[in-house]
Specification:
Layout lengths: L5 E7 L4 H13 L6 H22 L7 E9 L2 E8 L7 H4 L16 H8 L2 E6 L5 E8 L3 H7 L1
Antiparallel strand pairs: 1-2, 2-3, 3-5, 4-5
Length: 150
């Protein structure tokens, strides 16, 4: 049985680093032989989570830190994206489709809904004293399952 493996990376909350997060997670997930659809689902959810950090976590400063951890637990990938920004006042309200705190910036309010549609499970919680931690879970089909379902 494969031992659990993980990687961690931190980067400034700049929009250009959203692509870095996608590539890091996609490369890490390759050890599980995911399908193209599974990789695309994961990359989309990671993009949404990182973009939320960039747009919402550090509004009064140029940027802060985003922490990304990706862990393999058997055929499950667990991705945690966290920040130490201003946090979310009402997490349940923020998870409602179309809810946005920045309507004047043409935000759709669909970030969490998108994450939930592409991942098996999404958890959102306060990150210690400040900030937010989003944990994304995705089970990667085994090669045998992929062949059987083709």
């Amino acid at each position: 049985m494969q031992k659990n493996n993980y990687m961690e990376v931190s980067f400034p909350s700049l929009s250009v680093n959203e692509a870095l997060a996608r590539v890091c997670v996609a490369a890490f997930c390759l050890q599980l032989n995911p399908s193209i659809d599974e990789i695309n689902d994961i990359k989309t959810a990671v993009s949404e989570a990182v973009t939320n950090c960039v747009v919402h976590a550090y509004p009064k400063v140029n940027c802060g830190q985003i922490n990304l951890r990706c862990e393999r637990q058997g055929q499950m990938v667990v991705i945690t994206i966290s920040d130490n920004g201003v946090g979310i006042r009402d997490i349940e309200k923020a998870r409602e489709p179309f809810f946005t705190t920045k309507p004047c910036e043409e935000r759709s309010g669909m970030g969490f809904a998108v994450m939930e549609s592409f991942m098996d499970r999404v958890e959102v919680e306060k990150n210690n004293d400040k900030g937010v931690k989003v944990t994304l879970y995705k089970r990667i089909s085994s090669l045998q399952e992929q062949v059987k379902n083709a």
